[in-house]
Amino acid sequence: MLLLKTSDEGFEAKFTKVVRDRRESDTQVGRDVSAILHEVRERGDKALVEYTTRFDGHNLSTEDDWSISKETCEEAYKSLDADLREALETAAERIRAYHEGQLPEDRDYTDAIGMRLGARWTAVDAAGLYVPGGRAAYPSSLLMNAIPAKVAGVGRLVVTTPTPKGEVNPLVLAAAHIAGVDEIYRVGGAQAVAALAYGTQRIKRVDVVTGPGNAWVAEAKRQLYGVVGIDMVAGPSEILVIADGKNDPEWIAADLLSQAEHDPTSQSILITDDARFAAQVEDAVDLALMKLPTAKTARASWDAHGLIVIVDSLEDAIPLADRLAAEHVEIAVDDPEPLFAKLRHAGSVFLGRNTPEAVGDYIAGPNHVLPTGRRARFASGLSVLDFMKRTSFIGASQGALEAIGPAAVRLAEAEGLPAHALSISKRLS
Amino acid sequence: MLLLKTSDEGFEAKFTKVVRDRRESDTQVGRDVSAILHEVRERGDKALVEYTTRFDGHNLSTEDDWSISKETCEEAYKSLDADLREALETAAERIRAYHEGQLPEDRDYTDAIGMRLGARWTAVDAAGLYVPGGRAAYPSSLLMNAIPAKVAGVGRLVVTTPTPKGEVNPLVLAAAHIAGVDEIYRVGGAQAVAALAYGTQRIKRVDVVTGPGNAWVAEAKRQLYGVVGIDMVAGPSEILVIADGKNDPEWIAADLLSQAEHDPTSQSILITDDARFAAQVEDAVDLALMKLPTAKTARASWDAHGLIVIVDSLEDAIPLADRLAAEHVEIAVDDPEPLFAKLRHAGSVFLGRNTPEAVGDYIAGPNHVLPTGRRARFASGLSVLDFMKRTSFIGASQGALEAIGPAAVRLAEAEGLPAHALSISKRLS
């Protein structure tokens, strides 16, 4: 953990280093992934069988080895502990309600010169969701990816997920049942993303691929961007807590650790105007780490990437927060509004003392797939729009064409595009 | 030019080949670009100077070699022929009006359990627009990229454009003046995109890079996706004209040629239910090519990639059009509405006999930066949203947290994330 004070000499250089440090994958991953994509594109299912044996210790031969049926998902759902099933249902309902509010409106109007103009939104035909296996197999991720796709109106929803040594996660299957997933394939890694993007004999290609994954999965999505639509290149998780000294240090420590426990590369940052409070939080983190079952991961993250910044006033936290452009920003003060109004770059903001970030991970409603690695400067969280596309349209009446056609002809000629000019001038009287 | 009839044996295989053919860049470009990005990242301006000398024959030494001032742009604007200036102004006004209608609305509401939820849109801080030099230096492109950025509220708008042998295009400078561009650098190619994304000593980095370019520029954007936001990987232009036999063959021929004249890799496709009309269009294309100043390019494109498909009924055109997912689709019939209603995948649609695609390139208002290479299956044209990002927010009252917190704790525990659970349970009474 690094402790900085804005009033210290050398603060700017140290803070700049934090902002610039990219906790991202190396170029070797790029080469490996590139080879895997090539193999899957050329050899389809055969490549999937080989990689799945090699990486997951899982043999793809029978139908049940390849895929998980809707019936199996329904059984997993029915076998779930009632409390947990209810929790999943509540989460799904709230996520659905929030995302329904994102459905865009079409435009269709005729302007003053008689030109009909507009835009129509439609869902993509098919979407593929990557669901990690093993430790990071999160049913909440499945809901957060599948529900926006369903709300968008996607007709075919495909999940790929690795099942290491054949092991499946019943919670994920139950979530797939709730979300209405159409197909599940037991394939993971870059090879799964390649299968979704290119299609194989067994797995029909999709139009958009979303969902979290390890460095290979993220790199595969990056390389296939353009072949399919993707949600975003996702990196390690981050939380930035802006807090005054009137918070319970244990609460804030838990918030910081809730990101740190994800991965050793996760980053947890506290900015406060109260040095005494900062020390209390530091102590509370150390204390919590003694009992936390995920302490190994959380401690590695906190030691390597944890940061506390002491500012003179919480107002000074905002420009720093904008430079960090963090995935999650908590504003833990009595009245978060004035600080929130000034903040420009953040994936999602958690307002007030009663809104731990984890409530957004599961159940609040907004999406938990958010831009990481300072990408909130230009990117947004996953939404219904990621599963839709917009077709603009233009309909010129004879009068409208007469009104503005000559100007377009002039521009086309000036650009040296005579056929463009001709296609308009031929239609002018 | 390839002529297909849906009723012919072997149609499906031949049409599938057309859909699958990617008129895209090769892997050598990928390696070259990767090296250029690395050099610019490591060596900044020095790399720019070297590449600009080598590729553009332009020496970057004085301030005027590096950049073009706002004053120079204003002079170019004032020196413009009055008709042309008015045409540019009309185009800018109409583009602005259409894009203002794209500004998204924020959300902010409190749900039944007392949870405040919402989303706030903000503009990115800075955007970089790539403007090609030489033959493809289009003022219309500058307007189509810069105006949405301005409407979004982007504070700093940077243009990079190559000036081969020092040559500048006064029309582009005039357009930059009209659009309110803040900085123009005389750098092009992958090296310009790298400078915009990473920043150099002279060129401060931006958050989003948009704009057309050659294969190197497109590949640079693809590789830098995630470091910055980009509009889309753009490939060669396409037009698909769906027309009955009652059109003037010369009009439709001009429409087809308006794409073909862009580049030898462009693609022009006619689908019609009238074989006699198809032959007339073919003849009209040949005739027009005899007089067209851009015939060399247009003929190369038409010969290599031109396609006419004869269908039994225009209804049959729609599933083919959806598979082609073309950048531009004209529906040249008396009542385009029923066909348009069924079409799912297209960048932009041009309705009726009086709407040549070129009217959308310049002056109708909607953006002419559109998804190519079948990407309309999942991507949309450039819009104000490409220069903005959305921050979701959550504010839990004590009551709201009590209502759904326990369910979130259950899910966190089931996912094996105890610090997530702790951050909520500590706040529950």
TrEMBL record, chains A, B:
One of its GO terms (cellular component) is cytosol. Its EC number is 1.1.1.23. SUPFAM superfamilies: ALDH-like (SSF53720). GO terms for biological process: L-histidine biosynthetic process. It comes from the Bacteria. NAD(+) binds at Y130, Q191, N214. Binds 1 zinc ion per subunit. One of its GO terms (molecular function) is zinc ion binding. The active site is at E327, H328. It catalyses: L-histidinol + 2 NAD(+) + H2O = L-histidine + 2 NADH + 3 H(+). Its cofactor is Zn(2+). Keywords: Amino-acid biosynthesis, Histidine biosynthesis, Metal-binding, NAD, Oxidoreductase, Zinc. Zn(2+) binds at Q259, H262, D361, H420. Signal peptide: none annotated. Transmembrane segments: none annotated. Pathway: Amino-acid biosynthesis; L-histidine biosynthesis; L-histidine from 5-phospho-alpha-D-ribose 1-diphosphate: step 9/9. Substrate binds at S237, Q259, H262, H328, D361, E415, H420. It holds the Pfam family Histidinol_dh. Catalyzes the sequential NAD-dependent oxidations of L-histidinol to L-histidinaldehyde and then to L-histidine. NCBIfam families: hisD. Belongs to the histidinol dehydrogenase family. HAMAP family: HisD. This is Histidinol dehydrogenase.
